Amino acid sequence: MDSSQLLGITTFTYFFSTILYAIIFIFKAKKLGTPATVFTIIAFLVQTAGLLLRWQESYTIGYGHAPLTNMYESVIFFAWTIIFMYLLIEWKFKTKIIGAFAVPFAFLAMAYASFATGINKEISPLVPALQSNWLLAHVVTCFIGYAAFAVAAALGIMYLIKNTSESRQTTNDESLLGTLPPLKVIDDIIHKTMVFGFLWLTVGIITGAIWANSAWGTYWSWDPKETWSLITWFVYAITLHARYTRGWGGTRIAWLAIFGFMSVIFTYYGVNFLLSGLHSYGSN
Amino acid sequence: MNKTNPVVSLFASVKLALFTLCLLAVTSIIGTVIPQKESFEFYAQNYSESTARIFQVLSIPDMYNSWWFLGLLSLLSLNLIVCSIDRFPGVWKQIKKDNLAIDLKRIGKMRLSQQWNSDKSESELSTEISNKLSSNGWTTDQRKRDDSLLLFAQKGAMTRTGVYIVHASILIIFIGAIVGEITGFKGSVMLPETQSTSSIYEFGTSRAIDLGFEVRCNRFDIEFYDTGMPKAYRSSLTVLENNKVVLEKDIVVNDPLTYKGITFYQSSYQGYQDFILNITDKKTGVAEMINLPFQQRGTLTQHKDVVIGVINAETMGQSVSRLKVWFKDAEGPASVFWIPSGEEVTVQRADTEYIVAGKQMYATGLQVAKDPGVWIVYLGCGMMILGLFVAFFMSHRRIWILLKPEDGTNTVLIAGSANKNKLGFDKTFENLADNIKSN
Ligand code: HEM
Q: Could you report the per-residue pLDDT of A40-49, keeping only the tens digit for each?
């Protein structure tokens, strides 16, 4: 068994997880709650094994680096952190329905990594600029932030769906959306995940700056990727301030969570393909 | 602060902060879409002559250093300073507040409060409660209020400063950047192997900057992976002062050399059509180096009879992997042999043996930076992470306990509040109250 097989399996297990959570949501099949969680945990462990195996394989080949160095590996790690974050939230807030919104993000990431054309799955050696311990710190912290923002966006979508139906007065506790957590609870979790993501994004930007300084002697050079990460950071800083000091909440914050995540996706993905700069290694 | 002054209240407002942050976010996009620091001709060609002129007026080609972008950053800083001066004294008052002077009527009206009766005496109750609180990490004060006794305990009062640590950290990062800009420099130098330099060239202006010492590149090597991808760029550098060696280090990308606050980073290289050959006579031990252009013969100064030349070379990409050397001394016919670049070969001659090492000649591209502000920036970064952690995850929690005599027994009234994470505190409070209530 090699890592690409394990990671291939993961794509399908996350798909199946998504279906399970969707069934719980749509058919109110509460009984499936525990199986869905158990299944997702197993899928997560398979993916963890896949990542570790890939790490070990890179040592066997003689390149020896953490599996975080190209688009393929980073998308897979992104999926991994989303599931990790989701499981944490499920455990902390004791609600399964969020899975129907969050797990698809991980599935989509895995599907992209597995099936997109022009994505290099080889374990390739590290070019000199990437040979730094800061690589690990930088990538891991950024992706914890990104994953939290992904979950916040998923919750934002959930909030908006529930909110529109409530304002149409079609909801009662019997209906589909009645199974979603109360709006106030969703709002609270959105805020908490964004706060968590903001802290990690901050650490991610800082570790990136320290790395750049140790490689080039400039901690900030306004290259497109850096600049976009700062723009994303501004978006969330604005969101948090709007909430703290102007009392924003509910629909507005839900939209900002989605908007913020679009900025994350552009920082992570769009910049590599649409703009050029120091980080363009990510595009191969 | 004078809040009636509209200018002051504008600069103290969070509305302005939100406006400035939005503007910064939106305008920052410009520089990621329009290539930066290109020539006027570049913009004229890629856009149009008139667009290029508009760009020039608005400093778009170097927008992150433009007057208006720096102006926005200054506005944000001023906003932060005024806002903090406006609010911090209030927060400090909260931290230093005499919580035992609270209006007793407020205690029972707090969101979290519980009340019960106890047969124990006031002094018994107060010692018991203090002990229980202190075993949970709360230190208690008490004061007689009329006929009642008020106890107060708190945790994390200082966490109220978290937000201000974050805001101050932003200013500190800006200060660090300014210090670096004023007292530091950034430049580069292309240094051929075996040569030294005492000055480098500033980015942008190309002005020569005197280092105050000399740096020599002894050797530059590229290592490759099997795939042909570069694995490491390595320069062996020597720092000299008054022709004396003071520091030697091999640098690679991500591992620079620093001397007297000036740091040399491996950043690029350039291959020459020249070769460096090292010849050692095994018998006498005399070693000598010669620098030769491709397909030209050279003679040595110490081994007077030796004639040597590079007659062929195999390349991999831009760099030479093997070189073919023609070698002759006083005795016998010429030897012709291949040397893998950077390695050595023993040549058997009639009279003696020579060790010949050969490699393509390179110049190493060094990025050179002096930035005394970087430690201020790092301090700011550390403060920001710390401050965010405190602001997001810690809270100021307070507990009041009022012991009131009533018909021979005592009423115990316990109330608490937290400035953040109220749900989390609900649990803590209930556990504490239960703990105190028991026995
Ligand atoms: C990009 C820069 C900024 C960052 C990262 C930032 C960060 C934060 C954070 C983390 C909080 C925490 C809120 C809490 O936990 O209660 C906060 C609150 C706040 N910020 Fe900022 N801030 C920034 C810029 C500004 C500016 C320019 C102002 C200017 C007026 C400002 C004014 C405030 C105020 C008034 C609060 C609420 C304080 C309170 O709750 O007492 N911030 N900020």
A: 899 999 889 8
Higher pLDDT, A166 or A27: A27
Q: Atom 32 in ligand 1: which residue has the minimum CA distance? A: B14
Task: Name the pairing type of β-strands B307-316 and B319-328.
Answer: antiparallel
DSSP 8-state symbol, B396: -
Strand partners, B233: B222
ipTM score of complex: 0.89
- The pLDDT tens digits for B18-56 are 999 999 999 999 988 888 888 888 988 888 889 999 999
CA gyration radius for chain A?
Answer: 19
| DSSP codes of every residue in B347-359 | EE-SS-EEEEEEE
Separation in Å, CA B312 to CA B315, B320, B332: 10, 10, 22
Q: Find residues 214-233 of chain A whose CB sits inside 8 Å of chain B.
A: 214-220, 222, 224, 227-228, 230-231
Whether A131 sits inside 8 A of B368 (CB atoms) is no
The Cα B257–Cα B264 span in angstroms is: 5
From residue B196, alpha-carbon distances to B183, B219, B373, B374 in Å are 25, 11, 28, 28
d(CA B380, CA A220): 14
A45 touching B (Cβ < 8 Å):
no
Work out the pLDDT band at A276, boundaries 50, 70, 90: low
Give me the CATH topology for the region B99-156+395-437.
TATA-Binding Protein (3.30.310)
> Phi, psi (5° rounding) for residue A95?
-140, 135
Q: Per DSSP, what are the bridge partners of residue B402?
A: B150, B413
Would you list the domain boundaries of chain B?
Answer: 6-94, 99-156+395-437, 185-370
Geometric angle at alpha carbon A75, from A74 and A81, rounded to 5°: 85
